[in-house]
Give the backbone structure.
Amino acid sequence: MLREDFLWGGAVAAHQIEGGWQEGGKGISIADVMTAGDVNTARRITDGVMPGENYPNHEATDFYHHYKEDIALLAEMGFKCFRTSIAWTRIYPNGDEEEPNAEGLKFYDDLFDECKKYGIEPVVTLSHFEMPYNFYKKYNGFANRKSIELFERYARTCFEHFKGKVKIWMTFNEINNQTDWHSDHHSMQDSGFKVSESENMEKAMYQAALYELVASARAVKMAHEIDPENKVGCMLAFCPIYPYSCNPRDIMEATSAMQKRYWFGDVHARGFIPEYIQAYWKRMGFGEMDITEQDLIDLSQGTVDYIGFSYYMSFVTKWKEGNDGYIYKEWEDLVSNPFVEKTAWGWAVDPEGLRYALNWLYDRYHLPMFIVENGMGAYDKVEEDGSIKDTYRVDYLKKHIKAMKAAVDEDGVDLMGYTPWAAIDIVSASTGEMDKRYGFVHVNKNNAGEGDMSRSKKDSFYWYKNVIATNGEDLESYAPKD
Ligand code: BG6
């Protein structure tokens, strides 16, 4: 059985829903300079906002103006919590002002008050792929030690200002995505710098991650000092990396790959830099990394209270002849899993992998687990009567909820909540599309930007409402439609 106080809800991120990119004194963020792409076309990062380009996050789903209507819909589904992020650029438009932007703080005051009105607990990420563009331009983001101080300032403002309103926090969304360091996409989203501009790209990624982990640890410590009620988690993109076969070489290749992707979690939760990753840096001849005695103290004092993670898919890796050092390059070393199906975007659908993830993480850290994202991007069809029969979404979520319940009931995992992605339709982070849909609530807007932004309930809305009402016991029925 899931806990009585299980946090059922849904997740979104500021840049993917809010829009209002120039309202309320907001500054330009990394997401504001990312163009639209699609399943075959990568998003581009332009040098500032350029005329004639299409930037889907500028308007997104206009949550900035629709939030009351949207929160009412989530309340109708029975949400216990709502995961979103604060856009750093609403609070510090350029990332380095001395004083915060009062209008930005007010927007989130109003939003969190609206949640509280319905008894919905806000679950808030401080940095979800939306660092100030100026933070990149002027400082080179987390490639610069100065970033720690700037992030601390932002985090302190949030913890002090929203004290009492927000108690469940996360620092950096999917911090470990930058394991895939061969392009600027993840380094810009996760760390606010272009890894391609570095002399040694891999080393630069690790150094930026270290500064970010120190900033995170300082924020966790600060959050506890400001309000002992605060719970702060990490946020890992968890894609288990399976060995392709029982060939011992494949097993070791997968072990090494898991270390590269999850050393971030070890630092967050255990408070020290694991030996295996330090040995790897040495082996790669990276030389000294910039990490001080004080940084190490901060890491040990700022360990997280729970493990937040997203789960969408699993990966598989296979050893290649000659790779005796088990060097893992995520963009070259993954192979297809013949045992699982894939979404239209090629993401492996593997519910059992969620049970594996919960076991792996819980065995390692013995901290409460929080699944803060899980879902399937799909093309939805609006029928003539306006209904959306998204049975594939229900099917995906049902299988994953069953796997998560098995981890709790049969494997003893302590799970505090589940917030599927996404509460409502959003702009996709990887492709910038609207038509890669995840929500229980449909937003009438397509890839071309057409539509009146009206909201409507998909069939999954009624299904999830019943799941919440029965604390996950009934995964088959739908609440009555209105
Ligand atoms: C996670 C991110 O990577 O996956 C979200 O935290 C993102 O921001 C989600 O939207 C789904 O990915 P995508 O690329 O399909 O939007």
Residues 13, 16, 129, 173-174, 237, 310, 373, 377, 421, 428-431, 436 surround 6-O-phosphono-beta-D-glucopyranose (CB under 6 Å).
